[in-house]
Amino acid sequence: MNKKILVTGGLGFIGSHLVERLMNLNYSVSVIDNYAAGPGFKPPQPVKFYRQDISHPKVVDLVAKIKPRVIFHLAADNRITSSPADVLKSNIIGPFNLLEAGKKAGIKQFIFTSSAAVYGDPAKLPINETHPNRPISAYGLSKLTGELYCGQYQSDFAASIFRFANVYGPRQSSRSEGGVVAIFIDRLLKGQKPLIYGDGSQTRDFVFVNDVVDALTMALKIPKKFTLNIGSNRPVTIASLLNQIAALIETKPVFIQKPFRPMEITNSLFSYYLAKKTLNWQPRTSLIAGLKSTIKYFQSV
Question: pLDDT value at position 24?
Fold first, then answer.
């Protein structure tokens, strides 16, 4: 059996955890990354690393040369404030190149990581996979477009799509706009006041990175077409999140209030019923346990 796997964005937050897990499962792993997040994570030996931008046409021939059986496509521009042109380059042209490359290389499965941003401001909670897609940002629109492109290649290979809630954990960048857990921890450890946009009553669904990697690797056993939500189905207000992190660090949850940002949704909550039915997946890490692990990481770097 061909155990070659390619991970795009393998130096990033989720990608680096996935690479380590795949190595532990004895897969032969290659990584394509352009260092956009910086070279903080060094892939373990014997991972084969290729520095390449996925939006460049050369990536098609590179993938054909690697000849993977499966592609995990995690590389993306996930900044809500990125220009539409930058998002188009990374999140639409990039996936198209990888899908074409997968077809040329004869892969068996393409695993695409999408986002809660495809749903926009939800009409009802919890959100399941049949909820209307109404993205309100260029990022959300680009992720939905990537999903639709995946559908165009279903006759060539199985395209499996994961829509993530708010993923958090060790190695998450405190410079990432969506990484509110990392941002709060980093600022509190430095004695700085975190920013809260609005009154802090907005809710998010936080899922720990190890649980996300569980879902991704489980998909290797079911190389089929599917679209699954990956979240905790536990709503947490931003104000409550700050209070919990501050309590664990043993500091005061003092913050600076800013106006609510118009490109952000008010509430998010994922149903993972279909993921449990399809993959027998469910989140295993409580928020407190995940926060403790993340705080420990930030205290060590």
Answer: 95
DSSP string, 25-86: TT-EEEEEE--TT-S---PPTT-EEEE--TTSTHHHHHHHHH--SEEEE------TTS-HHH
Q: Based on the number of CB atoms within 10 Å of its own CB, is 129 exposed (0-12), middle (13-18) or buried (19 or more)?
A: middle
Higher-confidence residue: 271 or 84? Answer: 271
Q: In what order do the strands lie in the sheet with 166-168?
A: 166-168, 203-208, 235-237
Please tell me the pTM assigned to this model. 0.95
Chain-centre distance for alpha carbon 296: 21
Helix (H) or strand (E) holding 288: helix 287-300
Residue 279 structural domain = 4-168+207-231+269-284
User: For the ranges 48-52, 173-177, 227-231, which has the lowest average pLDDT?
Assistant: 173-177
Asked whether residue 40 falls in the same domain as residue 107, the answer is yes
97 and 161 fall within a common domain: yes
DSSP 199-229: SS--EEEEEEHHHHHHHHHHGGG--S-EEEE
Say if 174 falls within a structural domain: no
* pLDDT greater than 70 at residue 38: no
Residue 39 pLDDT grade (very low, low, confident, very high; cuts 50, 70, 90): low
Question: Measured between alpha carbons, how far is 211 from 229 in angstroms, rounded to an integer?
Answer: 12
Banded pLDDT at 279 (limits 50, 70, 90): very high
Q: What is the rounded distance in angstroms from the CA atom of residue 98 to the CA atom of residue 61?
A: 10
224 shares a domain with 247: no
CATH of the domain at 113: 3.40.50.720
Q: Tell whether 130 and 212 lie within a shared domain.
A: yes
Catalytic residues, by residue number, are 139
